[in-house]
Recover the amino acids of this structure.
């Protein structure tokens, strides 16, 4: 009798142990897709913000389905992107952001032009895209610390595209003051940042001259970053950005 | 041996009787026969349809969704009408926290309507033809309202007017209906409401109190829906097409005029049926005008209420007063002061001293604070409607003086008091010359001794407490909807049954004025703008607003501003700002303004400081929120659904 119990117990142990033997029949994704979105006029990456309102790469896994649910890679602040957990597959890539869209449709939904790109990912792939940003914001000089503890910055705003559809008025120019380099529309110190909305008639003077912005009075934190953004009303009204500029009190 | 034969016989007998087929309907599922044969069965069905009706009532907030009890991030705190300590910026509706699935839940309601419409004719012999006609039309009405709730959030959604049933094991492909164009959904709403208007009686035969639809309820909502559609056609700039070139987001601009005309015509249907509430009103008495506007929201016999949602304790309750009374009237289970109107909102109204740029005039000609004996002095001539909407510092509510004071200014007063912080500054107030209170305990424990020997608490009984923000953080507290007769012991969550007025004649008139002005602007004739002008004057006269407008100066912005003032805190403004496509301009790195009353100890008088929100909460609305994200779970179930742009 005792022996029988042992046999049954042993049988159960073997049964239980073998039931756990299943392994996932797919290997984990391990391929790497990286690249950048650069300004075709200057060759520099298009500065953007971190998060859903910055540059992102829409990827359609066309080798999986003719009509796949898109996945998105959000770009880093400097306009580069990288994902090291991708499946090997054929993708169609469509960068989206504050630049002339790569797929242009008319008011009835007809595609006028399509410069999206298909590529095969096997192991690693580097896909760099050249785009025309709506606006370019460049630093004219380093931030200047004034005697009343305010700070003055100077930037130059210019258009990054000749496309007639995007010669739209500049609606906003914002100077962000932030304690990290990740200064953007959702991440700034509201006490010192200067957010300015412009009317359409001011666009030509904004484009033709150097723009000077001074922070409100009040002593800034010791180490701060400055960044200037500007936008036109196109697409989802995303911003173009300058590079972040760090500054220390003299 | 015989014994075995008996046993065998018994076993056989048992076996043979055990094989009887049990072909009865499952008793845990209510059958058609139980529902569709008696008026009370129909009433139970209707009660479900109406309770599922997706309206933004006392139990709605963008954060928690529809039909939820806990409203601590209230809708006015995302529109700029008010600040709330729990809402710290602009937001889209937050599906993650919703306790009712806005997609699946609404489609369940649509299924319930379709099922009713399909099944009732089979049982028509149990009822009079009029009953069948009216009940069917009510199902059309609820279906239209449900599609309205979907299309204003998502744009084009799948349309189904048939009963969809999934049989386990069958192919689900036919159920994966793709999104229709946005225009097709608006047209579906219009055709359902037209059906309801044509088939509903003037007074609902079951409930004539406005809690169930009648012909005019359907017309009132048609004016709201068509105005919404016209606004999208005119102002939307976000477009999305599917592979078949259906326009899922946006309506061709050429269709705007037809929608505005439809809104205008629908609103006009209510002419002479409902009227503005004027029971306590008097043309010459501002107090009567104020009291009249207060009563409008609680008088069950108001001729202005068109469609209401009623509550019933303990089955269906809310807690509006518990969340929103001023701090000094706090109920036994806490909360209070969730809705604190911004100075931006208050400055929209007339009757308060203003600078040329429209901001409140709190400084004298020399740039020093104006001094007041009482905090109410600044608001002595305020528009009665504003006073019925917002509690000013020092006004009376529930027989109490609502005391709102930011602190005591202890600095010198000779030659006038200069602004505490430079204009436009977002920094904190200086601590050297201001005594303030972090919370209610430190307030009561630290009375300040005034020069005349008496003592005064640093903050008012309703705030402002700098650390514990359960107080009037903007310097104002909301008045609209509050019940002055509710005993403080009853100011509890899940305890109130005050009726929610979802649509009132005031809104229908404003719909008509706005649609008329849009039509006039589109070249449809000046009779429309003249009609709009007369409506705005009716609304302003009831409100006690002055001065009167001149016909020539009226623009679409005049009408919008009047609408925002009239319908404030009724959960309408957010959707207005969205359909006008202006909330991303208004909330563009915006910090809302507040008005802080101080007591100057050495002068023995009050002064007001106007500044930006002390918390420095920045509101930035994302334009992509005009079309909300389709829940991921819905796309997983039906990959034919195309996601909206930017998500």
């Amino acid at each position: 009798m005792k022996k029988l119990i042992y046999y049954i117990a042993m049988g159960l142990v073997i049964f239980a142990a073998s039931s756990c033997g299943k392994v996932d029949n797919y290997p984990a994704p391990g391929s790497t897709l990286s690249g950048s979105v650069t300004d075709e006029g200057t060759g520099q990456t298009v500065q953007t913000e971190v998060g859903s309102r910055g540059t992102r790469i829409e990827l359609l896994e066309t080798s999986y389905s003719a009509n796949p649910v898109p996945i998105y890679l959000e770009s880093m602040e400097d306009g580069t992107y990288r994902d090291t957990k991708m499946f090997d597959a054929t993708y169609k890539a469509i960068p989206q952001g504050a630049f002339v869209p790569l797929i242009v449709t008319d008011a009835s939904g007809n595609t006028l032009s399509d410069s999206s790109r298909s590529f095969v990912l096997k192991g690693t792939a580097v896909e760099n895209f050249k785009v025309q940003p709506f606006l370019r914001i460049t630093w004219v000089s380093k931030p200047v610390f004034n005697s009343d503890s305010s700070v003055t910055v100077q930037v130059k705003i210019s258009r990054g595209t000749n496309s007639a559809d995007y010669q739209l008025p500049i609606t906003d120019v914002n100077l962000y003051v932030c304690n990290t380099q990740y200064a953007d529309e959702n991440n700034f110190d509201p006490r010192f940042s200067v957010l300015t909305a412009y009317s359409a008639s001011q666009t030509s003077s904004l484009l033709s001259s150097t723009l000077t912005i001074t922070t409100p009075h009040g002593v800034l934190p010791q180490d701060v970053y400055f960044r200037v953004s500007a936008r036109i009303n196109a697409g989802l009204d995303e911003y173009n950005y300058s590079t972040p500029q760090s500054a220390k009190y003299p | 041996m015989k014994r075995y034969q008996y046993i065998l016989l018994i076993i056989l007998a048992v076996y043979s009787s055990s094989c009887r087929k049990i072909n009865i309907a499952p008793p845990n599922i209510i059958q058609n026969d139980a529902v569709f044969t008696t008026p009370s069965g129909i009433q139970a069905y209707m009660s479900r349809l109406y309770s599922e009706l997706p309206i933004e009532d006392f139990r709605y907030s963008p954060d928690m969704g529809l039909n939820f009890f806990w409203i601590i991030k209230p809708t006015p705190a995302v529109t700029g009408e008010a600040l709330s300590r729990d809402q710290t910026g602009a937001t889209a509706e937050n599906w993650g926290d919703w306790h009712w699935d806005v997609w699946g839940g609404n489609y369940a309601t649509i299924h319930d309507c379709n099922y009713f419409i399909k099944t009732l004719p089979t049982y028509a012999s149990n009822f009079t033809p009029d009953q069948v006609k009216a009940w069917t039309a009510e199902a059309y009405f609820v279906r239209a309202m449900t599609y309205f709730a979907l299309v204003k959030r998502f744009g084009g959604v799948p349309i189904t007017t048939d009963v969809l049933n999934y049989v386990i094991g069958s192919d689900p492909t036919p159920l994966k209906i793709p999104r229709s164009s946005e225009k097709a959904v608006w047209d579906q709403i219009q055709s359902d409401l037209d059906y309801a208007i044509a088939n509903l009686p003037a007074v609902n035969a079951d409930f004539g109190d406005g809690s169930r639809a009648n012909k005019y309820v359907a017309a009132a909502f048609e004016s709201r829906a068509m105005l919404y559609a016209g606004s999208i056609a005119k102002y939307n700039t976000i477009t999305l097409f599917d592979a078949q070139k259906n326009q899922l987001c946006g309506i061709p601009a050429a269709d705007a005029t037809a929608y505005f005309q439809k809104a205008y015509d629908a609103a006009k249907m209510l002419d002479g049926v409902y009227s503005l509430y004027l029971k306590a009103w008097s043309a010459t008495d501002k107090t009567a005008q104020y009291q009249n506007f207060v009563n409008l929201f609680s008088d069950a016999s108001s001729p202005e209420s068109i469609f209401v949602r009623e509550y019933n304790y303990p089955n269906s309750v809310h807690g509006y007063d518990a969340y929103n009374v001023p701090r000094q009237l706090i109920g036994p289970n806490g909360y209070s002061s969730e809705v604190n109107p911004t100075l931006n909102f208050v400055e929209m109204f007339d009757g308060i001293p203003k600078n040329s740029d429209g901001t409140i005039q709190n400084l004298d000609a020399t740039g020093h604070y104006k001094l007041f004996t009482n905090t109410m002095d600044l608001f002595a001539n305020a528009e009665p409607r504003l006073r019925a909407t917002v509690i000013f510092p020092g006004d009376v509510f529930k027989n109490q003086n609502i005391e709102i004071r930011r602190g005591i200014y202890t600095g010198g007063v000779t030659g006038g008091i200069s602004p505490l912080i430079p204009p436009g500054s977002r920094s904190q107030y200086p601590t050297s010359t201001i005594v303030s209170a972090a919370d209610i305990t430190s307030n009561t424990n630290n009375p300040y001794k005034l020069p005349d020997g008496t003592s005064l608490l640093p903050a008012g009984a309703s705030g402002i407490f700098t650390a514990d923000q359960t107080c009037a953080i903007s310097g104002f507290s909301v008045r609209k909807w509050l019940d002055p007769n509710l005993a403080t012991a009853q100011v509890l969550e899940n305890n109130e049954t005050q009726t929610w007025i979802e649509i009132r004649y005031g809104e229908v008139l404003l719909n008509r004025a706005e649609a008329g002005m849009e039509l006039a602007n589109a070249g449809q004739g000046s009779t429309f703008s003249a009609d709009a002008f007369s409506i705005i004057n009716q609304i302003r006269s009831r409100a006690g607003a002055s001065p009167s407008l001149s016909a020539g100066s009226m623009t679409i912005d005049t009408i919008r501003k009047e609408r925002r003032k009239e319908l404030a805190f009724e959960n309408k403004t957010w959707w207005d700002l969205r359909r006008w496509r202006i909330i991303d301009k208004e909330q563009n790195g915006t910090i809302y303004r507040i008005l802080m009353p101080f007591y100057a100890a050495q002068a023995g008088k009050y002064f007001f400081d106007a500044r930006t929100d002390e918390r420095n909460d920045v509101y930035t609305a994302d334009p992509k929120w005009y079309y909300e994200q389709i829940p991921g779970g819905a796309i997983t179930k039906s990959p034919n659904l195309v996601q909206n742009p930017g998500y």
